[in-house]
Amino acid sequence: MTDHTPRLFTSDAAIRHVGEGLILQTLPKAEWTHEAHLGACAFIVRERPDIAPECEMRDIISRYNASVGGVNDDMQGYHETITRASSSR
Question: What is the DSSP letter of 32?
Fold first, then answer.
């Protein structure tokens, strides 16, 4: 059986790490989890008023995915519904 226990962030610095790593495309691929997705969106909404998540998250995440060798298609990579739900102001 697979363990689906959420990986909680222990500090604001941990959230900042994933948010900045996403934006700068420096976050290791192994750290890009569902929780990291939520943390990065929270970071951008809270700390980056210069980024309009409703307009820019698709490009930010798609660029990150490509930078770590990922694919953005109908089966993997960027998913609009998940991102919209987690990055609404």
Answer: -
User: Model confidence over 9-67: pLDDT tens digits?
Assistant: 999 999 999 999 999 999 999 999 889 988 999 999 999 999 998 899 989 999 999 99
Is 58 within the bounds of a domain?
A: yes
Which residue segment(s) compose the domain that 72 sits in? 12-86
Model confidence, pTM? 0.80
For residue 31 the two structure tokens come to 């750290």
Domain count, the chain: 1
Asked, for residue 1, whether it belongs to a domain, the answer is no
5-to-8, 12, 13, 48, 66 alpha-carbon distances in Å = 9, 20, 21, 29, 28
Burial-class residue 89 by CB neighbours within 10 Å (0-12, 13-18, 19+).
exposed
DSSP assignment of 50-84, as one string? TS-HHHHHHHHHHHHHHHTT---SSSSS--HHHHH
Q: Is residue 6 part of a domain?
A: no
